[in-house]
UniProtKB/TrEMBL annotation:
CDD domains (alphabetical): YbaK_deacylase
Top EC class for this record: lyase
Any single biological process term in GO: translation
Gene3D superfamilies: YbaK/aminoacyl-tRNA synthetase-associated domain (3.90.960.10)
SUPFAM superfamilies linked to this entry: YbaK/ProRS associated domain (SSF55826)
Record-given protein name: Cys-tRNA(Pro)/Cys-tRNA(Cys) deacylase YbaK
Pfam family, one: tRNA_edit
Enzyme Commission number(s): 4.2.-.-
Keywords associated with the record: Lyase, Protein biosynthesis
Residue span, YbaK/aminoacyl-tRNA synthetase-associated domain: 35-114
GO MF annotation, one: lyase activity
């Protein structure tokens, strides 16, 4: 099965960075990093979550964390120049980013967000 090239892959190609595209069957009922890691036969620490948050001062930004971790919102707010931040509601993910849950990449997103 041919894997469709993503914006992230195009950026890596342009920068001449080697990579391997990996495909797997998505379980819509379990998009957790733990499940993805198990499906790929990887350690959960090697699978990363790309999360979209909203800060009270800066607006939307992207946070990338290891699959075995949870977001520390206080720390994320501080690092991003906000006093407070929160995850965006799931129903807002596609309208804001152009991606569905589980498809956000920290690299080459359709819209530019601070990361």
């Amino acid at each position: 099965m041919k894997i469709q090239k993503t914006n992230a892959a195009r950026l890596l190609d342009k920068a001449k960075i080697s990579y391997a595209l990996v495909s797997y069957i998505v379980n819509e009922n379990d998009l957790s990093a733990i499940h993805v890691a198990e499906t790929l036969g990887e350690n959960v620490e090697q699978v990363f979550k790309t999360l979209v948050l909203h800060g009270d001062k800066t607006g939307y930004f992207v946070c990338i964390i290891s699959g075995d971790k949870e977001v520390n919102f206080k720390y994320a707010a501080k690092l991003s120049g906000n006093k407070n931040c929160e995850m965006i509601p799931m129903k807002e993910l596609f309208p804001i980013t152009g991606y569905i849950r589980g498809a956000c990449s920290p690299l080459g997103m359709k819209k530019q967000f601070p990361t």
